[in-house]
Design a protein that fits this description.
With about 350 residues, the protein is an alpha/beta fold. It is built from twelve helices and 13 strands. The longest helix has 16 residues.
């Protein structure tokens, strides 16, 4: 296949930031995706429906003319979130999930949940009303090896959570391990997972072998080659509960190339093209539309796009950097090539 047409895809996990950075990165996503689940970990975080409405308005105001894009908003779960905020979220037609960051797990997660028991009543209301819980699935205990934090979360947090709230719809976001893929595959139909392009394309050797490459540092961190292969099998397989979520996360170059660099990979510039590489390498290009365009809407109860995009096999060189307000962001595969191009 030299071209492939799929329904316009959606991104079910995206960081758009705010202000000038939002204006800089939003067009890359809006050219490729019709909708995106927008992460709420701003400073200050998006903790109420009113916050989400205001952020949504800023996103739409930053959208360039001629681009059709719908932000699907989320709330940031804190120890102080109340069940009545869930009532307001469900009543609002633009809030599509609540994000749980374990406190300290990743960028701007300091206000996250310190003990999942503190939000049990909120989770119960979400299960009752059908509002999905979106999970950053890692424990943050200092004594747990960073490469083991996802696996420990599955056994110590997620499994008991599903037992307490069997009706809760849960998306385990940006899974990184074979253990997580098996957990979701063997879980209930209310459990799904998103997978990033970078976790499908590279393993931890790409970040660490021969020198540290900070622009590949993300959380959850890249894992072993056998984990990457398990993720590819999940993404290209038959289980409709695995779907696309880029977790594209722009940071200024200086914030990445520092003594304590930020976690996150910027992939929005090739947000669907990189997945096409994965599916082609796996001999599964005919399944890209399911993973990118159909499975996510089915889980979230939304319609599949009624328009299509066309990808063509045409190599192009990724710029070394993109503007990010007054600074710049270094993209995934900067200076290298991408094998597929989105036809304009």
């Amino acid at each position: 296949m030299d071209t492939i047409k799929i329904p316009r895809p959606d991104d079910w996990h995206l960081h758009l930031r705010d202000g000038e950075a939002l204006k800089a990165v939003l067009p890359y996503t809006a050219r490729r995706f019709g909708r995106a689940i927008v992460m709420p970990n701003l400073k200050p975080p998006v903790v109420t429906v009113a916050d989400a409405a205001a952020y949504r308005a800023r996103i739409l105001a930053a959208l360039p003319d001629g681009l059709d894009f719908t932000p699907l908003m989320t709330l940031y779960l804190t120890d102080n979130t109340r069940p009545d905020e869930i009532d307001r979220a469900v009543a609002a037609d633009f809030v599509h999930g609540v994000k749980l960051y374990p406190a300290g797990a990743t960028t701007n997660s300091d206000s996250g949940v310190t003990d999942i028991g503190k939000v049990d009543a909120v989770l119960g209301r979400m299960a009752e009303l059908g509002l999905p819980l979106l999970l950053h699935g890692e424990v943050t205990h200092g004594d747990v090896d960073i490469f083991e934090r996802e696996a420990r979360f599955l056994d110590g947090v997620l499994s008991p959570l599903l037992g307490r709230h069997p009706g809760l719809r849960v998306v385990l976001e940006h899974i990184t391990t074979a253990a997580a893929a098996r957990f979701v595959a063997s879980g209930p139909p209310t459990l799904a997972a998103t997978i990033t392009a970078h976790h499908l394309l590279v393993n931890r050797n790409a970040m660490l072998a021969g020198g540290i490459r900070p622009h590949l540092y993300c959380l959850p961190i890249l894992k072993r080659e056998e984990d990457r292969q398990a993720l590819v099998s999940a993404a290209t397989g038959d289980d409709a509960r695995f779907f696309l979520g880029t977790d594209s996360a722009p940071h200024a170059i200086g914030a990445k190339e520092s003594a304590c660099g930020c976690a996150g990979c910027f992939t929005a510039h090739a947000g669907i093209e990189l997945y096409a590489e994965v599916f082609e390498a796996a001999g599964a290009l005919e399944r890209l539309g399911d993973f990118a365009s159909r499975r996510g809407p089915a889980f979230y109860g939304l319609p599949v796009a009624d328009t299509e995009v066309t990808l063509e096999r045409q190599s192009w060189t990724v710029p070394d950097r993109f503007p990010l307000g007054q600074t710049a962001v270094r993209p995934f595969r900067a200076g290298g090539t991408v094998a597929w191009r989105l036809r304009s």
